[in-house]
Amino acid sequence: TSIIGNTGSIGVVPKLNNPSVVTDAWITTFGDIAGMKTAWDDAPVEVVRFDSAGNLYSGLIASTQDYNYYYATVVKQNANGVILWQKSISNTYLDGQGFTVISSLTVDSQDNVIVASSSDGSSYGPNIITKMNGVTGATIWQSVDDSTSEPYDVCTDPSNDVYVVNGQGRIIKYNGSTGAIIWASGFTDFTWEYNTVVSTGTHILASRAYDSHVDAYGYDGTYLWSYECGFDLNCVTWDGTDWYALGRWGELMKVSGADNT
Question: What does the alpha-carbon distance between residue 76 and residue 34 come to, in Å, rounded to a whole number?
């Protein structure tokens, strides 16, 4: 059994061979990779995901050597910790300051990587959704939307279409092949923020930040139902059979099945 996670400090990702013994199989510190540095001394790796071959993708914020520019950065490593590639998402859309922040990433069924990031030195917008080739890191497509707030999370459905939730309580669906927006749903008046989104195989679940509800939407954008958990939510996740809601103060709820029954 192996587990991998971030340490909450200077961009360090350890792999533990056996969680009960807690011995490192390897450890990587992203302090100076490909001419870049971690952006801040307390900047953690924001997100880690795996592909079907056991490679891992770490999303972090890196800077140029002079610290003048900051970029949302993805680093791919194999199961032995060897860095295979590193790619950054620069800002050429608004102020040209080269300031981008990574929110989340996911890996689709074809082992390509979809990154949710934002750019703008002041307001952390617009949405910059980037699909990368998992083998090379090359950009397959990129969608930029400056009409809405920064993205918080991203997932894909069985057809590899992409879903992003943001701070306006919106869910946006992108064509997985082209990056074109298919639909946008959710709230339109900033009533709630969505902080996480997962796909169950039949629909998507989105958790409301600072609220107790998990909302379900069909892959066509239809609002299906809402489930009140009774505590403020940090995230919702799905294990293939049941879904789980994690609260801001340590609460954990399991709901059997993909529905709200």
Answer: 13
| Cβ proximity of 206 and 215 under 8 Å | yes
Q: Tell me which amino acid residue 138 is.
A: A
Question: Above 70 in pLDDT, residue 51?
Answer: yes
Q: What is the pLDDT of residue 247?
A: 92
Distance CA(258)–CA(200), nearest Å, equals 7
Predicted confidence at residue 19, as pLDDT, reads: 56
DSSP 109: T
Nearest CA to 196 among 240, 221, 163, 173?
163
Beta-bridge partner residues of 253:
245
Nearest to 105 by CA among 151, 49, 62: 49
Contacts of 223 (CB under 8 A, 6+ apart): 185, 215, 216, 217
**Contact at 8 Å (CB) between 134 and 51?**
yes
- 251-256 contact pairs (CB < 8 A, 24+): 253/229, 255/227
- Please write the tens of the pLDDT for every residue from 162-205: 999 988 888 999 999 999 999 998 776 657 889 999 999 999 99
- Predicted structure pTM score: 0.85
* Residue 125 pLDDT grade (very low, low, confident, very high; cuts 50, 70, 90): low
